[in-house]
Amino acid sequence: MQTTVNTAGHARKLAAAARRSGRSIKPMTPGRVVYLILAYLFLLFIVLVSVYPIVWVIMSSFKSNAAILGNPFSLPDTWNFDAYVSVLNQYSFGRYAVNSLITAGGSTIVSIVFYAMAAYVIAKYNFPLKNFIYVILTLTLLVPGHTKTQPIFQMIMNMGLYDTRTGLWLVYLSGGIAMSLFVLKANFASIPRDLNEAASIDGSGFFRTFWQINLPLARNGLATAGILMFLGNWNEYYYAALLTSSEQNRTLPVSLAYFNQAFSYDYTRMFAALTIVVLPGIIIYALFQEQVTASVAASGVKG
Amino acid sequence: MSTVRRGRKGGKYTLMEKRSFPWIYAFLFPTLLLFAVFYVEPIFQTFVTSFARFNGYTPPQWSLDFSDLGGTIFRNYTRLFSMNSFGPAIRNLLWWSLIAMTVHVGIGTAVGVLLYNRLRGWKFVRIVYMVPNVISGAAWAMIYRFMFNDDIGVINNLIRRLDPSSHIQWFYSSPAAFWAITFTWVFYAVIVALVVMGDLMAIPASLHEACEIDGASGFQKLIHIDLPLCRNAIGTSVLLSVTSRIAMYENIALTSRGGPGNDTYGLALILTKSITDFNYGLANATAMLMFVFGIVTMQIINRVFRMNDPVY
Fold it and tell me: Which one has a higher pLDDT value, A78 or B4?
């Protein structure tokens, strides 16, 4: 039985692959040439609008103010890191980065464990209200985050956590519920159920079966959901701006609003500061490109 | 989806399953607690206090005098509706939602179809298209602010090569500010592209083979088979893109700040301004309006795209 299914699946995959490769060597009719030209022009435009703004910012951070004003399109003459050195000396970027890391990373580590526990029981067990719980939890994807602003602001105030990293960490815990559940539930569902039965015969309890057997096997899903959750919190601006005020609790995205006032006409340093804020996200993406793509696709599928 | 197993009602659980119930609910507890604290309670509080006199210094006060609707229980709503920035905020929301549904989702769908067709370099496009989504929205708004700057921005310098006298003040004049803000998000539809691509890949190969046997052209196949079959992905994309427009904040707050005048105002800006003014009742009335917009959009999209019906 198992083998027949596999062979059928394999044959289908081969057929699909053949079809796909067949598509690329289609005869070059005039219609197809026009289609290809338009398609590539469109994709070129997409690539340009996606990377040019960032490339432009990075390029400009190495140019003098006069060069930026003179010709915004020109490449830098030298790779001059003076602006970076000066910006890093003047502002405690290290501190902002640490604040971002503690709030975004700390909340991701805690809530990914919580969501993994919830996704695990939803994927593996039957219990009353299961579908209802799953549906209401995933509907959170559609609640505009801002609608809860005042109650959350007041809650943080009442707890005495205004302008603390703990307060922001607490708020970030609730981010990404829906996306994490989509990704993790699918991941746990793909782990064979037999494993749980074998474990319980061997006398492994509920928690150990989860922690020692299922969780390690779901590490792909954990990475996928965790990275997207981390990026979301790392880039979060709205609540960070609302719930912190002092420089010592400022996160990287919030620091941008302050540079704007500080460097009003010092474009080189402004662009250097922007680059410093933008680069970590791009580096994380470069390292975990597959996971980010997978999680974005998954979180949209079951909106 | 797991709804297949839904037929099992209470009492149908095996002894083994029943024995696990305490563990199961213990595992759900942290997530449900977060859900209660950060979703249920805030939304409930928002709803209730949107009808109250509420300034942050004293506890919320409800006056249950229905004799004069305008002056009492709906005071925050009537005040919101009569604000100078309210009209522009609603007008902008409607226009931006329309642009999101058509142009934004259209661009994303087109990229999704091209990625699915695996043109040479599709992987590169997929990687690059995601980049604007992984950096902070605040940073992206700032970058656009400089792109549209009259002195150093590339846009105006490009325009000046054609028309040397042009000096469009993008974020400070009308209607340019509306369009400049639109440009900060309208092209970036990588989520749409990935979701559509996912649905296209799920189309059974047999359907496409049948098409080819019938002699359908690539375009006919796209219009009659591919796009109808990914209506779930497109519906989801429309919904998510409209929800993002309702919540749009950084793109405005860090560029035009709602100006010139109130021309580029949004509901999220009214909300934050009310909070910093300690006008919590007004803030929560605005939040409820955003919430209702979200629900209404969801209902409409579900109907139009028949999201609950099976596709195959």
Answer: A78
pLDDT one-digit tens code per residue, B196-249? 888 888 888 888 788 778 777 777 888 888 888 888 888 888 988 998 899 899
Q: Cα(B204)–Cα(A2) distance, rounded to whole angstroms?
A: 21
3-state secondary structure string across A211-261 = HHHHHHHCHHHHHHHHHHHHHHHHCCCHHHHHHCCCHHHCCHHHHHHHHHH
Lowest mean pLDDT across A176-185, B61-70, B153-162, B198-207: B61-70
Q: Which of A39, A73, A150 lies closest to B275 in CB terms?
A: A150
Q: Report A:129-148 residues touching B (Cβ under 8 A).
A: 130-131, 133-134, 136-137, 140-148
pLDDT of B82 over the 80 cut: yes
The alpha carbon dihedral of A243, B250, B94, A139 has a sign of: negative
Domain ranges of chain A: 87-301
For residue B225, what is the DSSP state?
A: I
Share of chain B above pLDDT 90, in %: 33
Q: Do B129 and A297 count as a contact with CB atoms less than 8 A apart? A: no
Q: How many CA atoms lie within 13 A of B221 on its CB side?
A: 18
Q: Does A284 touch chain B (CB under 8 A)?
A: yes
How far is the C-alpha of B189 from the C-alpha of B104, rounded, in Å?
6
Q: Are B75 and B53 in contact (CB under 8 A)?
A: yes
Residues in a beta bridge with B299: none
Residues B182-191: tens digit of each pLDDT: 999 999 998 8
pLDDT at position B14:
80
Average pLDDT over every residue of B282-299: 90
Q: What is the rounded distance in angstroms from the CA atom of residue B149 to the CA atom of residue B144?
A: 8
Exposure string for B279-294, b = 16+ CB within 10 A, e = fewer:
bbbbbbbbbbbbbebb
CA distance B134 to chain A (A): 6
Which CATH architecture is the domain A87-301 placed in? Orthogonal Bundle (1.10)
Q: How far is B46 from chain A (nearest CA, A)?
A: 7
| Nearest CB neighbour to B138, from listed A133, A253, A300 | A253
Q: Which two structure tokens, joined as six digits, stand for B9?
A: 């009602």
Tell me the C-alpha distance between A148 and B162, whole Å: 48
Chain A partners within 8 Å of B114 (Cβ): 39, 42-43
Q: Between the CA of residue B52 and those of A70, A88, A158, B71, B75, what are the distances in Å?
A: 56, 47, 19, 11, 8
Integer Cα distance of A264 and A244 in angstroms: 23
Report the half-sphere exposure of B296 (CA within 13 A, side-chain side). 9
For chain B, list the domains and their CATH numbers: 68-134+190-304 (1.10.3720.10)
Which residue reads 């219609």 in tokens?
Answer: A31
Give the distance from residue A118's alpha carbon to the nearest chain B alpha carbon, in angstroms. Answer: 5
CB distance A36 to B119 below 8 Å:
yes
Q: What is the DSSP string of A108-171?
A: HHHHHHHHHHHHHHHHH---TTHHHHHHHHHHGGGS-GGGGHHHHHHHHHHTT-TTSHHHHHHH
